[in-house]
Design goal:
This protein is an alpha+beta fold and 263 residues long. The protein folds into 2 domains: 179 residues, no CATH class; 63 residues, no CATH class. It is 39% helix and 9% strand. It is built from 7 helices and 6 strands, in the order αααααββαββββα. It has a 4-stranded antiparallel β-sheet with strand order 3-4-5-6, with no helix packed on it. Strands 1-2 form a two-stranded antiparallel ribbon. It comes from Streptomyces finlayi. This is LigA protein.
Length: 263
């Protein structure tokens, strides 16, 4: 039976990989306002070129002359450094792979003439590092391997000691939490500034959280005439599918609140 930290750490690594493209996009755009939520803004304003996240050079190996979002850049740099350092630590403890094994994590070699060799496996970027760390956390490739001639060779990796599993969980979950905070995807409730409910003038609140789509509620409750259902707290709630019409209404294009409530 695997340790509980195994699955938690693997899940956090997958979250980081899935959201890395959003962070790269955030670095290249000015800091977003509370409204509209980041996920919806990206849906409303399609990006012409897809971010080739896997092929992007690591942030720590690139120049950043004029980033539009310093907070996002600082987060990206910190996460890369943390995961690269973690990979170094795990490799030093459990790696047995030969130099020709593509599964091997290569350390930096500042004396190497070739740039990619000088950076080691860091040159492959965060996605590669994340997948590699996940493999060590899951104890992949830790059994002797049979060759074509029927002989067996030693496993390229040994089982990760429990103390390093705890270290991996601590580093990875810290990186995930910082990424979610930077993208505004952590568990939070935020008042939507300067935008009262178009139907009743009540205060709107934006609700976000990991692994869930954003939603908006109106503080007025049942008296609000917005054409959306009530949540468990008897507040009008705009779920993901209802948010585009709310964006339109808040822009003054549909039923703008004029200080009187319809019955």
């Amino acid at each position: 039976m695997q340790h509980p930290d195994t699955h938690r750490t693997a899940a956090s690594l997958r979250t980081i990989r899935e959201l890395w493209g959003e962070l790269l996009l955030a670095i290249a755009t000015p800091p977003a306002d509370v409204w509209p939520p980041r996920q919806l803004a990206q849906t409303l304003h399609a990006v012409d070129d897809e971010l080739l996240v896997v092929e992007r050079a690591p942030l720590v190996l690139r120049e950043h002359p004029a980033p539009l979002n310093l907070t996002a850049l600082d987060t990206g740099l910190a996460i890369e450094r943390a995961l690269f350092a973690l990979a170094d630590t795990l490799a030093a403890a459990v790696q047995r792979a030969t130099a020709r094994d593509a599964r091997r994590w290569d350390y930096q070699d500042p004396d190497a003439v070739d740039i990619r060799r000088a950076h080691g496996s860091r040159a492959h970027g965060l996605h590669f590092a994340s997948v590699w760390i996940e493999g060590r956390v899951l104890d992949e490739d830790t059994e002797p391997e049979q060759q074509l001639d029927g002989t067996f060779v030693a496993a390229p990796f040994s089982v990760l000691p429990e103390y390093l599993l705890h270290e991996a969980r601590h580093v990875v979950q810290g990186a995930e939490a910082r990424l979610l905070r930077t993208l505004g995807l952590d568990q939070r409730t935020t008042p939507v500034p300067d935008r009262p409910c178009p139907w009743c003038g009540g205060e709107l609140e934006l609700h976000t959280g990991p692994d869930e789509a954003p939603s908006v509620t109106c503080s007025t409750g049942i008296p609000c005439t917005a054409p959306v259902p009530l949540d468990a707290q008897r507040r009008r709630i705009w779920e993901w599918g209802d948010l585009p019409p709310l964006v339109t209404a808040l822009a003054g294009l549909e039923q703008p609140y004029a200080g009187t409530q319809t019955s």
